[in-house]
Write a structure and sequence with these properties.
Blueprint: E1 4-13, H1 22-26, E2 33-39, E3 55-61, H2 64-72, H3 78-81, E4 85-97, E5 108-116, H4 123-138, E6 146-152, E7 162-163, E8 168-174, H5 177-184, H6 187-196, E9 206-215
Parallel strand pairs: 4-7
Antiparallel strand pairs: 1-3, 1-4, 2-3, 2-9, 4-6, 5-8, 5-9, 6-8
């Protein structure tokens, strides 16, 4: 599957204990994939964006209609479970990007979650430049297992969480936080930082968070 739609739920505050969410998510019939991201630690020589969110859920579907149906029905079971946290939600289109070494991941692995708040002065041109120039450098990080690039998607969604408006998110996947730290301290990281300066004009914050990731579905 080359493209998928997904819902990001980003929570800060009191979040459910590990495995509490598993039966709720496993019961959603149209869910194509569910990743649970929790905070990890890695050292980036260029950045420190502070504490990661306490929980990030990435829920994938093969069709927009399946995502909308889930938001109007079974995903409502998450609302009381996340009542102790401040939660934002955003639907996005996922674009996988090829990597040289896409090895199988361990059950728990590490994800570098990146978000660009935006906006860009010319958003289509910004995405085109990023995908054509920035992502190929990213793919050269040592031991990168997967890359996905996400762009915003408007859907019908009655879930009562605040709506995030990031113009783009990225996911770069490694076997472990140690592998992520090694990649961030490789010469490729300096190339990434230099290329960042060539991105078309945009405003807003950019955040980079290391997370421990577990797949449920």
């Amino acid at each position: 599957m080359d493209f998928a739609v997904c819902l990001f739920l980003i929570a800060r505050g009191i979040v459910p204990a590990p495995n509490t969410l598993d039966p709720v998510l496993a019961a959603i019939p149209t869910l194509a994939g569910a990743l649970v991201h929790r905070p990890a630690s890695a050292r980036d020589p260029h950045l420190n964006d502070g504490a990661p969110p306490d929980l990030a859920l990435q829920l994938s579907f093969t069709k927009v209609s399946s995502l909308e149906t889930a938001c109007a029905g079974p995903l409502a079971a998450l609302v009381p479970l996340l009542a102790g946290a401040a939660v934002t939600q955003q639907a996005m289109l996922a674009r996988p990007f090829p990597v040289p070494d896409p090895a199988a991941l361990p059950p728990e692995h590490c994800t570098y979650l990146v978000a660009y708040d935006g906006p860009a002065s010319n958003l289509p041109a910004w995405h085109a430049h990023y995908i054509a120039h920035h992502s190929p450098i990213m793919a050269r990080f040592p031991a990168t297992r997967a890359i996905e690039i996400y762009t915003a998607l408007d859907i019908a969604n009655p879930l009562p969480f605040a709506n995030a408006t990031c113009m783009q998110r990225n996911k770069v996947v490694f076997d472990s936080p140690e592998a992520l730290t090694a990649a961030l301290n490789s010469p490729i990281r300096h190339e990434m930082r230099a290329d960042y300066a060539t991105l078309p004009p945009f405003t807003g914050a950019v955040t980079h968070y290391p997370m421990r990731t577990r797949r449920i579905v």
